[in-house]
Fold:
Amino acid sequence: MITRRERIEPLFLRLIAARSDTNTSYELVIEEILLSWLKSRSYFTQNPDNLGTCRVFNDQHHREVVWALVKGQGSKTIVLMHHHDAVDIEDYGKLKYCALRPDELMKQLKTRQLNKSTRKDLESGEWLFARGCADMKSGAAIQLALLDEFSEIENFVGNVLLISVPDEETISKGMLSAVELMCELREKHQLEYVLTINSEPYFNQVKDKAIMYEGSVGKIMPVVFVKGVRSHISDPYNGINPSLILAHIQCLSELNVALCDQVGDDATPPPVWVNLKDRKRAYDASIPDAASGYFNWLTFTRSPVEVLDTMCDISQKALEEVMYRLVTSYSEFCRLNKDEEAELDFVPRVLDFKSLHQQALDKGGDHFLCLYEEYQLLLNELLSRNEIVLPEATIRLIEFTADYIDLEGPAVVIAVSGPYYPHVSNLLLENGNRYDLAKRVNAISLERYGVEYTSKAYFMGISDLSYATWVGNAEDVRIIKDNSPGWDTIYRIPFAGMQSLKMPVVNIGPWGKDLHKMTERVYIKDVYERVPEILAQLISDVLASAD
Structure:
């Protein structure tokens, strides 16, 4: 009888060998490999309608979600979910030629200077090094092999649906399309989804302490557009520099631990800005007309409504501080020059994108909507050619709308850009702990391997689990849609589908280290033995207990 390692290992190495750089046509190659492997399984030879692909929505590379369903008795269904893309191999430098060849890569790494921990793992023989080996072709190989295993069980009770998606490392286009696919398959095959299992790697430094996650951290990206008052640099008090306002907003938000979310002993990192710049297109000796920026804000429980309200409060405070600084500086400057002060009559304001958009509608009606739609299509084309990124498209739409109404500064516009990852946790789901997942996993792991799993409420790496269920409400959906420029044209989330997928989630994957680095590696025993055994038993137990 074939062993699990014999089932997993050749597939795992084959997946590693297939370059699948995220957001590139390389992903098409691995999708063909996945589909070919599944078609070669005897179950899918006999049941070809239980296997297929789904084209990713609005995708320039024509990538696809690969799906396969082992249909047993009854409607209870476990969803196995993984991504097949990986980050690129550029960081390997001269070792790019062997980044996807573990044996050669490990041979070459032995000649390199490595830190003590990496050297120890390399020489132990217990770890496999390669791009994508941990994130997450090991998890993909485990899930595919288990699907094959369950397909061979006679009179199998329950169903297992495998979903393999592209683009997880970019903006999760694959999973967003997979949500609608899951809804279609549910209706077509009369399925009842009871649990989604993802197999991203866990991060740890202790050998016999493993981690499972019953949720995934959320990420929202506030975008700030600041309209200043243009003036020559020789006359600074006749204008307002939008970059100064933006800098104050950054100072009030970046590394501000008051903006962290905390659940138990875990807290999200505070926000960090990833982009700030003025909107000048060429040099001249004048204050910039506008400035913009955006940052990542991780959440456990904080809602989009809270995030937008907080950003408006922070922006209002920053505006007031800048205005006070301007007035104070102007008074001191007048005293230096023995000039009489004139009144500075700027009227600062903060508004969300919904309000800005409504002002444009009030002014232009259908004329504005027509121009706005044309501009969205232009931006969509630029996005498809990778000439701009999604947050930049968001900013350009804000800028377009502000220009249409001749928005006067100083003004701050708050919006949201994709990708938006809703936080999800079984803690927040009604009856989310119905299967007592941590107890079940430890009953298997402690008894068979002497390894204890710690259950954490959130996977901190940001993952596609965010779309496998929904813990928000209608107000969250409204706020996101109303304040996301280009919604439904350049970016969308299938909220309705997610709302119908209310089920517990769990992430159980192999031990990995140094993800996205040239020393990325995965613990071999987890790939070939421990994680497959835990997942196989967990799937059987949950399907047997589901009511």
